[in-house]
Each structure stands twice: as C-alpha cells, then as structure tokens.
C-alpha cells in the first residue's frame, strides 16, 4: 500500500509500505478522507519541534473498517464508518491520574510523534474510534480540529449569559466559537480577514470584529457595558493576542490559551493580580469533546462547505502542502480524498 512521507522540510514522497495487520483490540481502517492540520503544515515547513523525519503526517481521518483483531466489540465490525481520536494516553502520568488524558505527558499524536494517517490503511485501537450515522466521511474529518477549539471553550467554562471572545477564525477558533455558542454564550469572533469573520458568524458568533479596521478595545467595551468579556480564547498564537486576552478580560475573568506563540510573550503582570484572572492552557480534546462536535455537525449548525476550501486527491497531497506553505491565507481546510 502507499503512504506519503514528509522526508525533510519542504520535501514529500509517496512510498510503498507493508500493509498493517490488526492485533488484539485493534482494527484496520481504510482511510477515505484526511484533513490537513496546521501541525502538518509546520512539519512540512520544518517548524514542528516534536517531529523527526521522515514522517507520515495526518491525524484528522475518517474511513471504513476493513479488518478487526481479537477482542473487538461488534459495534466496530468491518464496513463500519469511523473517525479516530488520534492521541495516546499512558494512564500513569499526573494528567491521566487526574482524569485529563488529553493532556497526557507521554501523548503521541498521529502524524506528530508517530507516523500518521496519510496512508491507504492504518491500524488503531478500537477504543479510539467514534462513529456517526448521519455525517458523511468527508464531514467527519472536521471533528478532530473543531474538537480542539470545543475543548478550549469547555476548559474556559463558557456559559449562558456570558460574553466570550475568540481570537482567530481558523479551524481551532471556529471550534471554540461553536463550543461557546452551544453553551449559550454570546460569542465575539476577532480576526483580520472579513471572509473568515463571515464564516465565524455562520459557526455561531453573534458579533465580529476586524482588529485591523476597528478598535478592538472600544468595541469590546461597548459590547460589555465597559466591563470587558467574561472569557477570552486565544487561537492565533501571536504575542499581541496573548496580551490582548489579559488586557481585555473583565475583573474575575478567564483566559484560555490554545494557540502556540512562536516567540516569547512579555507581560506587565499587574492585571493578573488586580483582576484576579484565571489563565488556563488547553491541549487536544477529550472523547466527550468529539461527541459534542459530532452532535453539533449532525444538527447542521456548522458551515461545512464554506470551511472546506480545497479537496485534493491523494496523489496531489504533497503539492497541496507546498501550495499551503506558499499562500497560507488562502486555506481554511484542505481535505485529501483517497478516491475509494
């Protein structure tokens, strides 16, 4: 069978590899669709410190079970359409013992610390499978990236009656918008691209702010009776948006960082204490987050067709990564179709 490898920064190659066989508790999934994540782009560009080369990228996958090993329940019989929770958890570290396996110290995500799903078939534990009777396989690849933002909204305890600001209308930001909106909050989406802000509104944002053409502070003050937002979720990864979360939060507000800043962030820490802000990190997602996103998509509450900007065949997956690296602003989501 064929797999696509990122062999070095900027280089890809399709190789023949052995077909995997499922062991006890495992299934083999025939991959039908795979979504590219920002981590895959960073691997291609050489900016992912967690990756060694060569590496098969990809962890947003949906496909059909074609073989099962011993000790797999009947709900995952061959022919079942599934998506995969792509993280591992050791069960022994402090995060796992606290019931937060998404932050496992020893996590290995598909396509990052281990070879991923840009391959014709992949073996995974049955315990990492979820399914939907209503979603298409193409739409199922959106569940994982949206779940990361959904988890950030859950981590920040987004609640009805609150004002929640989400910085960035990429896939993670859109997931945070959807999660906070589903919790009943009034969501304000912030971006520098009016097209992405339009998608943010369709994903559940009640208000939008273009932070280049509008004064962010003045708009947020006007929307919150001069108190500031209750919760701010950072999904961009820029020092200025990291700082803006702290500056704009209301007294006793909350901040969730899910974006990775590419450089050190300097703060005046006065607001940390004076406002008594809760500042939290958010990593990956839980199975419950996945289920929440599945239900949200099944209800037709998300603009799937507007978000999937490119669908490419497996043979062109490497070229699609190169295109994305050259023009990142033109892409919201690239989906690779295996042409089954």
Structural description of this entry:
The protein is α/β, with parallel strands linked by helices. 29% of the residues lie in helices and 23% in strands. It has 12 helices and 15 strands. The protein has helices spanning 38-45, 94-97, 137-140, 143-155, 171-182, 194-203, 216-223, 239-248, 270-274, 287-298, 304-307, 317-326, and strands at 2-8, 11-16, 26-35, 60-68, 81-84, 121-125, 129-130, 163-167, 186-191, 207-210, 231-234, 254-257, 278-281, 310-313, 334-337. The strands form 3 sheets. Strands 3, 4, 5, 6, 7, 14 and 15 form a 7-stranded mixed β-sheet that branches. The protein has a 6-stranded parallel β-sheet with strand order 10-9-8-11-12-13, sandwiched between helices. Strands 1-2 form a two-stranded antiparallel sheet. Helix 1 crosses helix 12 (317-326) and helix 4 crosses helix 10.
Task: Give the tags.
340 residues, alpha/beta, seven-stranded mixed sheet, 12 helices, 29% helix
How many individual helices?
12
**Large-scale geometry:** globular
What is the H/E order?
A: EEEHEEHEEHHEHEHEHEHEHEHHEHE
* Count of extended strands: 15
Helix content: 25-40%
Tell me, rounded to a whole number, the average pLDDT.
Answer: 96
User: What kind of oligomer do you see?
Assistant: single chain
Secondary structure topology:
Blueprint: E1 2-8, E2 11-16, E3 26-35, H1 38-45, E4 60-68, E5 81-84, H2 94-97, E6 121-125, E7 129-130, H3 137-140, H4 143-155, E8 163-167, H5 171-182, E9 186-191, H6 194-203, E10 207-210, H7 216-223, E11 231-234, H8 239-248, E12 254-257, H9 270-274, E13 278-281, H10 287-298, H11 304-307, E14 310-313, H12 317-326, E15 334-337
């Amino acid at each position: 069978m064929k797999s696509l490898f990122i062999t070095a920064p900027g280089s890809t190659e399709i190789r023949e590899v052995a077909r995997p066989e499922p062991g006890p508790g495992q299934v083999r999934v025939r991959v039908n669709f795979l979504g590219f994540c920002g981590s895959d782009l960073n691997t291609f560009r050489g900016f992912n410190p967690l990756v060694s080369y060569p590496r098969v990228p990809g962890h947003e996958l949906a496909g059909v079970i074609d073989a099962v090993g011993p000790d797999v329940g009947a709900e995952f019989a061959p022919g079942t359409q599934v998506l995969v929770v792509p993280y591992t958890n050791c069960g022994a570290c402090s995060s796992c013992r606290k019931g937060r396996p998404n932050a496992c110290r020893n996590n290995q995500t598909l396509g990052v610390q281990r070879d991923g799903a840009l391959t014709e078939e992949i073996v995974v534990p049955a315990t990492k499978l979820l399914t939907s009777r209503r979603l298409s396989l193409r739409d199922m690849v959106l569940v994982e990236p949206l779940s990361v933002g959904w988890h950030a909204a859950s981590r920040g305890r987004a609640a009805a009656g609150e004002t929640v600001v989400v910085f960035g209308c990429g896939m993670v930001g859109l997931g945070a918008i959807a999660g906070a909106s589903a919790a009943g909050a009034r969501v304000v989406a912030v971006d520098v691209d009016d097209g992405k802000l339009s998608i943010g509104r369709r994903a559940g944002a009640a208000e939008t702010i273009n932070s280049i053409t509008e004064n962010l502070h003045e708009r947020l003050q006007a929307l919150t009776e001069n108190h500031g937002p209750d919760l701010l979720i950072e999904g961009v990864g820029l020092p200025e948006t990291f700082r803006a979360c702290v500056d704009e939060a209301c007294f006793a507000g909350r901040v969730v960082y899910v974006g990775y800043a590419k450089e050190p962030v300097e703060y005046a820490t006065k607001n940390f204490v004076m406002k008594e802000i809760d500042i939290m990190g958010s990593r990956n997602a839980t199975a419950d987050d996945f289920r929440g996103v599945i239900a949200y998509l099944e209800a037709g509450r998300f603009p799937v067709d507007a978000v999937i900007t490119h669908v490419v065949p497996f043979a062109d997956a490497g070229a699609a990564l190169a295109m994305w690296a050259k023009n990142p602003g033109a892409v919201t989501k690239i989906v690779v179709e295996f042409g089954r």
